[in-house]
Design a protein that fits this description.
52% helix, 0% strand, Arc Repressor Mutant, subunit A, 6 helices, single chain
């Protein structure tokens, strides 16, 4: 968003260029850590910890099950953690499916109104900062 500092910029600003949230998230569900504890341990605001977790999840599964005790990386040598990873994948797939169904009616409403949601916002963004050519000024 405009005017908001990005996570990487924030970390650079406070002198933590090599910060990696994975250094603070334990392996194994028995060692799970609550986000509030991550915030205290990392010394970062909650929002930045959430963003760091979201980015790290692109590389490695970080679980925080609905009834869990905090965040952890599943220990694939532990049968219970493997089951938790399976449960997590099923939970997220279900969530994804429900989001898809919710979006279906929203997309259809936009189509019915002749609005292409994929390009509507881009037109406004492209218009900003464009210089007018002399022949356009007339």
């Amino acid at each position: 968003m405009e005017g908001q500092i990005e996570l990487v910029d924030y970390l650079r600003q406070i002198g933590r260029k090599n910060f990696n949230i994975l250094d603070y998230i334990p392996t194994g569900s028995e060692k799970a850590i609550r986000r509030s504890d991550l915030v205290k341990t990392c010394g970062l605001p909650d929002r930045y910890v959430r963003n760091a977790i979201a980015l790290a999840r692109r590389e490695i599964p970080i679980l925080n099950l609905q009834r869990g005790r905090g965040y952890f990386i599943p220990d694939m040598n532990d049968e219970e953690d493997r089951k938790k990873l399976i449960r997590y994948v099923r939970q997220e797939e279900s969530r994804l499916k429900h989001i898809g169904w919710s979006l279906k009616s929203a997309r259809q409403t936009l189509r019915n109104c002749g609005i292409d949601w994929r390009t509507e916002g881009e037109k406004k963004k492209q218009g900003k900062g464009k210089k007018k050519h002399k022949k356009d000024a007339a």
